[in-house]
Amino acid sequence: MKSAEHSPLTRKLSAFVALSDVELAVLERLHQRRRSFVAGREMVHQGQTTQAAYILSAGWVCSYKLQADGTRQIVDFQVPGDFLGLRSVLLRTSDHSFEPVVDIEAAKVMKSDLLDAFVHNPRLATAILWAASRDEAMVVEHLVGIGRRDAEARMAHFLLELGSRLALVGIGSKEGFDCPLTQYHLADTLGLSAVHVNRILRQLRESGLVTFRDGHVTFHDHRGLVSLADFDPAYLDQTGPLLK
């Protein structure tokens, strides 16, 4: 793993606050319990009592809720630089499950360490609150997408959002990004069938907007895709009010 100074989380938080040497040292301590997790094996299950969160350093994770009939609704995907299970540090139980999409690297953060960091480093606490607020804004946007956008716009918006999130940590751009998600992941996220997902991706490709093939998303007409999705990235607050 990279040192915390060069970690995706540090890069993301640095968009909000100019981190001091002391704050970087705190982030290094929060990264000290580093672990690897294999793809497909649940890290945290819905209803689990836990007093820890994770900082994702490498790989992708999906968070989801299981329904009574055994189906799942994917709530979001976590990418490098994201926290996993931050709410469960304060709530008694985890309200959803986490599962690595690919093999990942993550640092386990105990509740006591996180709260101690918040007490003694209020600017860092504010930056982490900013990151958590972005996560909440994305969940709201996903609800709007499922409820109000047609399938093409929903897919376009989701891919643009992923590109923006990955660009913030240096692993995505307006040209595209590597993406390990399957059409089944996309279906469970966007409220579509896998067959419908395949058809929508083909339509977007044939329209010359975007191609998703062999684990890579390529934006052919980024501006056109933004227009189709009516994508306004303001909710992502990619460059927050940089605190000095």
UniProtKB/TrEMBL annotation:
Task: Enumerate the UniProt keywords alphabetically.
Answer: DNA-binding, Transcription, Transcription regulation
Q: Which InterPro entries match?
A: cNMP-bd_dom, cNMP-bd_dom_sf, HTH_CRP, RmlC-like_jellyroll, WH-like_DNA-bd_sf, WH_DNA-bd_sf
Q: Which organism is it from?
A: Seohaeicola zhoushanensis
Q: Which SUPFAM superfamilies match?
A: cAMP-binding domain-like (SSF51206), Winged helix' DNA-binding domain (SSF46785)
The residues forming a coiled coil are none
User: Which residue spans traverse the membrane?
Assistant: none
Recall the GO molecular function terms of this protein's record: DNA binding
Residue stretches making up the HTH crp-type domain: 149-223
Q: Which residues form the Cyclic nucleotide-binding domain?
A: 35-90
Q: Which Pfam families match?
A: cNMP_binding, HTH_Crp_2
User: What is the official name of this protein in its record?
Assistant: Crp/Fnr family transcriptional regulator
Set out the biological process GO terms recorded for this chain's protein.
Answer: regulation of DNA-templated transcription
Q: Show the PROSITE patterns listed in the entry.
A: CNMP_BINDING_3, HTH_CRP_2
